[in-house]
Amino acid sequence: MRVVIEKLNKKFKDHQVLKDVSLEVNDHEVVVVMGESGCGKTTLLRCLCDLEQPDAGKISLDDWVVYGGQSKLSRQERQRYHRLIGMVLQNYQLFPHRTVLENCCEAPVYQKLMNKQEAMVKARELLSQLNLLDQADQYPHTLSGGQKQRVAIARACMLQPEVLCFDEPTSALDANTIEQLYPLIDSLKEKMAVVIITHDEAFAKKVGTRVVRMHDINPLDEK
After folding, report:
1. Domain boundaries, position 203
2. Which CATH number goes with the domain that contains 35?
3. What is the tens place of the pLDDT at every residue in 39-54?
4. Which end is more exposed in the chain, N or C (fewer Cβ atoms within 10 Å of the end residue's Cβ)?
């Protein structure tokens, strides 16, 4: 799936966070977005994932104009969009009162994409691939930072997204856990496009097929 962001703008009160920002992401690509704190990286990602509403500009998935068209998305279209774009947040946001397995099954069952039994089978398959099957019945507070992140990735992949977004995936991880991310992200790009926000130069250079730098509110300068 090809993602095209064109001249995206976003203000918070009088503060212009995004100004005419454009970016293209192609299938099986890992695009890493870098820049100083406050330059709008996370806002860009949140707009892409429908967590913030852009003020102007266009977001398209293949030929489907998600934002910038003549009409707003219907409820059904928004649900479809949320299935196509997955996001792993910086603090993971796992349900603390649910087990690892339950965390993974919640969304597809709620959205009626799978029944509970189907979701459990799929979740165990993903947890096994991420070396977490032995943690399936544990609660998030018992997990390490790296384990929580892998649970968040499994949960996002339950909806079989075409694009998976990461917000600062290395921020709370030690060096050994960061090393485990490289083959994981490499395997993800075989199935989807990946967009990563990070401050970590070494991580960006090693994991990205393309690195773009965002200079304050100016358009993205691809290098």
Report:
1. 3-222
2. 3.40.50.300
3. 899 999 999 999 999 9
4. C
Residue 159: CA count within 13 A, CB half-sphere: 26
Is the sign of the CA dihedral 146, 92, 162, 160 positive or negative?
A: positive
Length in residues, the chain: 223
Cα(34)–Cα(138) distance, integer angstroms: 35
- CA dist 165 and 85 (Å) reads 7
Is the separation of the CB atoms in 188 and 152 below 8 Å? no
Contact indicator for 223, 201 with CB cutoff of 8 Å: no
Question: How far is it, in rounded angstroms, from Cα 46 to Cα 49?
Answer: 5
DSSP string for 91-108: T----TTS-HHHHHHHHH
Q: Return the bridge partners of 56, or none.
A: 9
Q: Which residue has the tokens 């799929």?
A: 122
Tokens describing residue 135: 């943690």
Note the pLDDT of residue 70.
65
Enter the pTM of the model.
0.89
Distance of CA 53 to CAs 66, 184, 196, Å?
A: 11, 31, 20
Characterize the bridge pairing of strands 15-25 and 3-12: antiparallel
Number of domains in the chain: 1
Q: How confident is the model at residue 167 (pLDDT cuts 50, 70, 90)?
A: very high
| pLDDT greater than 50 at residue 217 | no
> Do residues 54 and 204 make contact, with C-beta atoms less than 8 angstroms apart?
no
